[in-house]
Specification:
heterodimer, A: about 120 residues, mainly beta, globular, B: about 110 residues, 7-stranded mixed beta sheet, 11 strands
């Protein structure tokens, strides 16, 4: 059974940093691209970032370029999102999502339950 | 970036009725790489349809997807009580991937 479990969400001040983690199980983690998708309170879904299965290819939304860094540790079956220079508009539930291709973004066949990031003073 | 516009914003229907949800793209979606998701309050999205018309594993056959190019439709043939939720379309044929704003299907 595929499981994705996010952690690391918290209340942080504007300009602060946070690192999210997503522990994966139930599939061959290194084979698939993984992504972060966020959802601001009461709003729709927004793709944030994707990393290829080997970690060699990375893609970011313009809204987070230069501030967020996606990475993965295939030996630990874990996906990360390092978030720096956080802004109020980054407040959202962050979902870890599994893609169906190895190198680029695709549709997402499994999602974690999400972790809440709140940016506020 | 491909912008997806979903309509209507809210659909008020009764159980047993047919629901027709629209997703229109600002430019043609490559290879009909369009997916639909269902999201219930407080839950993560769940994949329903990929490739515009292929049902994901375990999805009941009352859910069907159709369309190509810039116009796509999700149809729920007979609404069950558990189908009242928000539905999102997503294109993944052109980077960056993008989502529509969602359609809420509510009980009339």
């Amino acid at each position: 059974e595929v499981q994705l479990v996010e952690s690391g969400g918290n209340l942080v001040q504007p300009g602060g940093s946070l690192r999210l983690s997503c522990a994966a199980s139930g599939f061959t983690f290194s084979t698939y691209a993984m992504s972060w998708v966020r959802q601001a309170p009461g709003k729709g879904l927004e793709w944030v970032s994707t990393i290829g299965g080997s970690g060699g290819s990375k893609y970011n939304a313009d809204s987070v370029k230069g501030r967020f860094t996606i990475s993965r540790d295939n030996s630990k079956n874990t996906l990360y999102l390092q978030m720096n220079s956080l802004r109020a508009e980054d407040t959202a539930v962050y979902y870890c999502a599994k893609g169906i291709w190895s190198t680029s973004s695709s549709y997402f066949d499994f999602w974690g339950q999400g972790t809440l990031v709140t940016v506020s003073s | 970036e491909i912008v997806l516009t979903q309509s209507p914003g809210t659909l008020s229907l009764s159980p047993g009725e047919r629901a027709t949800l629209s997703c229109r793209a600002s430019q043609s979606v490559t290879s009909s790489y369009l997916a639909w998701y269902q999201q219930k309050l407080g839950q993560a999205p769940r994949l329903l349809i990929y490739g515009a018309s292929s049902r994901a594993t375990g999805i009941p056959d009352r859910f069907s997807g159709s369309g190509s190019g810039t116009d796509f439709t999700l149809t729920i043939s007979r609404l069950e009580p558990e189908d009242f939720a928000v539905y999102y379309c997503q294109q993944y044929g052109t980077s960056p991937p993008s989502f529509g704003g969602g359609t809420k299907v509510e009980i009339k």
